[in-house]
C-alpha cells in the first residue's frame, strides 16, 4: 500500500537566489520542502528501522568521538517500502539535479543520522573524502524529522569551503575537528549555524566542510539524509581505505572508469 504524499512527487521551485547561494557557498537551506503531514507519515517508520537496524549498543561514555556523534544506519530503503518511497522522492532528487546543474541524479546511499540526547559534537569533515567518485557533482540532502533548534545540534557549514582543498585527506575524527577548525578560521570562512524549521532541508556539496554541535536537548535529533551523484558520474580509483570500503559496500560491482549503474544506485531523476 502506498501513501506517497504530494510533496514527495511534485516540483519544488528552486529560485535563482537559492541556486546562486548554493554555487557560492556550497550549501543552501530551503524552506517548506516537506510539510508536517508528510514528515509525520514517514518519521515513525524511519525511526523504527533505525532502532531495528542500529548496531551501536555501547553507552555514550564508552564510545569514541565518532560513535558519540550519532547513531548511523544506511540504506534503510532496502528494508522498508515506506522508507523507499521517501528516499526515492522525485521532488528531492530533482532539487539535487537542479542544484548540481546536471540532467539527472542517481542514488549513492541513504543514511539516518540520529544524535541521541547528550550525543556529542560531529567533527568538521567533508563527505567526499569517503567517496571514490571522479567529479565533485555530489550532494546530500539533510532532512530533520522534527524542529531542530540550536541546542539540538543542527548541521552547520563553513560557507564557501567547497573550494578549499586543505583537509580533504582527513576522515571524520578528533584530528579533523582540530585541524579544520583552525584552518577554516584562519581562512575566514563564515560559520553558518542556524536552526531548522520543520520541513526545511539543506543540500550541501560533497566537498563542503560541515559539522554539528552536541545535542543538549532532552530529545533525540532525528535526521534522514539522501546522497545523490550525477547520474553520469564515473567511479575513480580509490585513494584511501575508506574509499575502497565504500566502493565494495555502496557501488557493488562497479568498475573504475565506469558509471556505477548498479542495483543499489538507481537513477532517481532524469
Automatic annotation (TrEMBL):
<keyword id="KW-0560">Oxidoreductase</keyword>
<keyword id="KW-0223">Dioxygenase</keyword>
<dbReference type="InterPro" id="IPR008775">
    <property type="entry name" value="Phytyl_CoA_dOase-like"/>
</dbReference>
<protein>
    <submittedName>
        <fullName>Phytanoyl-CoA dioxygenase family protein</fullName>
    </submittedName>
</protein>
<dbReference type="GO" id="GO:0051213">
    <property type="term" value="F:dioxygenase activity"/>
</dbReference>
<dbReference type="Pfam" id="PF05721">
    <property type="entry name" value="PhyH"/>
</dbReference>
